[in-house]
Amino acid sequence: MKVGIALGGGGVRGLAHVSILQVLDDLQIRPAVISGTSMGAIVGALYAAGMSAKEIREDIERHLILSNDTWRDVVEKREDLLKWVYAFKPDFSGSGLINAEGILNFMLSEIKVRSFEDLEIPLLVVAADYWSAEEVIFEKGELLPAIRASMAVPGVFSPVPVEGRIMVDGGVVNLVPYDLLIDRADFIIAVNVSRVRSASGPEIPNALESVLGTFDIMQTTMLSDKLKRLKPDIYIWPQIRDVRMLDFGKIEEVFAQAASSAEGLRQELSQVLRKADLP
């Protein structure tokens, strides 16, 4: 059985994908193909390049001060902590609020390959052509420009020129690209890490939150429509609450809140594997 997994966009919430991939590792399920949008493309690239989910998580946690860290732990991490801070330096060029280059160089520093062809698992990365409004699927050639394009959230990250086209975040056209796996896998898992919305009273969001929140509403509406027409074999939506797209100070909370969805997937996949072994 060829398993395909689609990893959706959602900013820092996309690190929940690591917990989902850990389940596949634990059950010794190796995906035949991965598709990803935005942060899903980044995590997917790390995994497709040969890193295990455990290694990805450990690499991330080396750059965080965790709730159970001692002062000695913090001192030992100091160089990695500074790398994380520098990765998120602002971009004052006027085209975006954050310079994606630093973040990507940090997140992709463990990848030893630079092209799609050198990945251990085939990967499809989704971006959007700003001027033609078309979905663009990258699966060949240089890896880094495709991922930069996939995560270029309008108004937050700078648009990315690729082969003469101006690209923005893939979530504009395909938040969770499981439909791209229909002809490439027998069993499809789709992971949606979009925001779980809750009424918060009459509070008026600031300008950036308004942009990101509206972007999220648009993405969620499009995904809901697609789910009515085409369903994956397993659909997962971790209920990650009170974590905004750029809340990178809440990574530990993302992992904690994703745990229950990961356990649910473990049980569901275990049942699938048991049935597959039946004569």
From TrEMBL:
A motif (GXGXXG) lies at residues 9-14. It comes from the Bacteria. A motif (DGA/G) lies at residues 169-171. GO terms for biological process: lipid catabolic process. GO terms for molecular function: hydrolase activity. InterPro entries: Acyl_Trfase/lysoPLipase, NTE, PNPLA_dom. Keywords: Hydrolase, Lipid degradation, Lipid metabolism. The active site is at 38 (nucleophile), 169 (proton acceptor). A motif (GXSXG) lies at residues 36-40. Residues 5-182 form the PNPLA domain. CDD domains: Pat_PNPLA6_PNPLA7_NTE1_like (cd07205). This is Patatin-like phospholipase family protein. The lineage of its organism: Bacteria, Pseudomonadati, Thermodesulfobacteriota, Desulfomonilia, Desulfomonilales.
